[in-house]
Specification:
The strands form 2 sheets. Strands 1, 2, 3, 4, 5, 7, 10 and 12 form an 8-stranded antiparallel β-sheet that branches. A 4-stranded antiparallel β-sheet has the order 6-11-8-9. The protein is an alpha+beta fold and 389 residues long. Helix 1 runs antiparallel to helix 2 and helix 3 packs antiparallel against helix 4. It has 10 helices and 12 strands.
Length: 389
């Protein structure tokens, strides 16, 4: 779900509509069962009633768990009043449904053991309990679905007008264009940072950083020819042994690596085989506290699908080694081509993807290094802290 976007509201709307339909179907089945003509309390009636109330009870548990989570993002994808409405209308009605469904199950047990044997009384009480079990969340779901549909329709109209106001060709409005496309669900990568894990407050946040912001970049540029030569030799000699890069959720056979540092641990044999590359890496502040430092190979036609990293602690550099063209790196909806002998530096807590549409491998030196906005004290804390990768 893309937060604050038409796609987010659409997802909430789908959940509400599906929930309303399921509750309505459960109500109709229940009423049909309880008001069937010429019926007595028998085994079939008890089994069916039990299934109906168990269904209502189970549905209430699922809805309660889901909406306790969804309520947290309702304001972002819907409106400032939505979270309050979800909590006051829907969650309250679901809790009532849970209690009534439990009473209904107790009623079925009483009928099964013969405590309640009057069909007329059982039918009337079952109907009342069913109305309390399903009625309030059904009404709340329908009302909230109507509100979500109205809000989604308004967002869709507004976003369509915004899309008409910008074009891909207008370079001066590239960030505006990327944001509009992301909010309208027309971009593969979301425009907002949304790391999956630990987040450091107050760090400079922007999708792309420029090379001249990092004085140590001159060491890579000066050693560009040597790094290229080392990459050719190391990759040529080890091509069949290159490991596939494992990234949960986006595993692809097209992404191979030759690692120098992985999760702060150096690979001495690879560093010694590429001394110029190793010297350049050691010039980066914080070495070797990198998430990764490696030759990253994206094979012909390879695509690394949109993803975002676990924290804003790191920035990522792609230093171009072998760039065949016809490819790009996209971060937060903004695309840039790789540059041979030059670098792209970005914040991987923004959603990003890589595409090599050429017929040759693309090779970059990839380094995840500590964000330069961290103070020395913060760096020391991070080095010692039990943070996840």
């Amino acid at each position: 779900m893309q937060l604050y976007s038409a796609n987010g509201t659409k997802a909430v709307l789908r959940v509400l509509v599906s929930q309303t339909v399921i509750l309505l179907a459960l109500a109709l089945v229940g009423l049909t069962e309880f008001w069937a003509v010429s019926k007595a309390i028998d085994k079939t009636y008890i089994q069916t009633s039990g299934l109906i109330f168990f269904g209502a009870f189970f549905a209430a548990i699922l809805m309660l768990g889901a909406w306790n989570i969804i309520a947290e993002i309702a304001e972002g994808v819907w409106s400032i009043r939505a979270e309050a409405r979800v909590r006051s209308w829907l969650l309250a009605s679901i809790r009532l449904s849970l209690a009534a469904s439990a009473v209904g199950l107790a009623l079925v047990i009483a009928e099964a053991i013969g405590v309640l044997s009057s069909f007329a009384a059982g039918r009337a009480f079952s109907t009342l309990v069913l109305m309390v079990s399903i009625g309030p969340p059904l009404v709340a779901s329908a009302l909230l679905a109507a509100g979500a549909y109205k809000h989604h329709s308004g967002q869709t109209r507004n976003n369509a007008l915004l899309l008409e106001s910008v074009t891909d060709a207008d370079a001066a409005l590239s960030r505006i264009n990327a944001s509009v496309r992301s909010n309208n669900g027309a971009s593969q990568t979301a425009a907002r940072p949304h790391p999956k894990g630990f987040y450091v407050a107050g760090l400079m946040s922007k999708p792309w950083h420029e090379s001249d912001e990092f004085p140590w970049m001159k060491n890579f540029e000066a050693a560009s020819a040597q790094i290229l030569a080392e990459a050719k030799q190391a990759l040529g000699e080890n091509f069949e042994k290159l490991e596939r890069y494992h990234y949960p959720g986006i595993d692809t056979n097209s992404w191979k690596i030759y690692s120098f540092v992985a999760d702060r641990k150096e690979k001495p044999e690879h560093l010694s085989a590429c001394p110029a590359t190793a010297a350049a890496l050691r010039s980066i502040p914080g070495y070797p506290f990198f998430r990764d430092a490696m030759f990253s190979i994206l094979e012909p036609g390879g695509v690394i699908r949109p993803h975002r990293d676990h924290s804003n602690l790191f920035l990522t550099m792609h230093f171009g080694i072998r760039i065949p063209g016809d490819g790009f790196l996209e971060v937060a909806g903004l695309r840039r081509p790789w540059i041979e002998g030059g670098s792209l530096i970005f914040d991987s807590s923004y959603e990003h993807q890589a595409v090599n549409a050429s017929k040759e491998p693309r090779v970059v030196l990839l380094v995840d290094f500590l964000h330069p906005g961290l103070t020395e004290a913060e760096r020391r804390w991070i080095v010692d802290a039990p943070l996840w990768r």
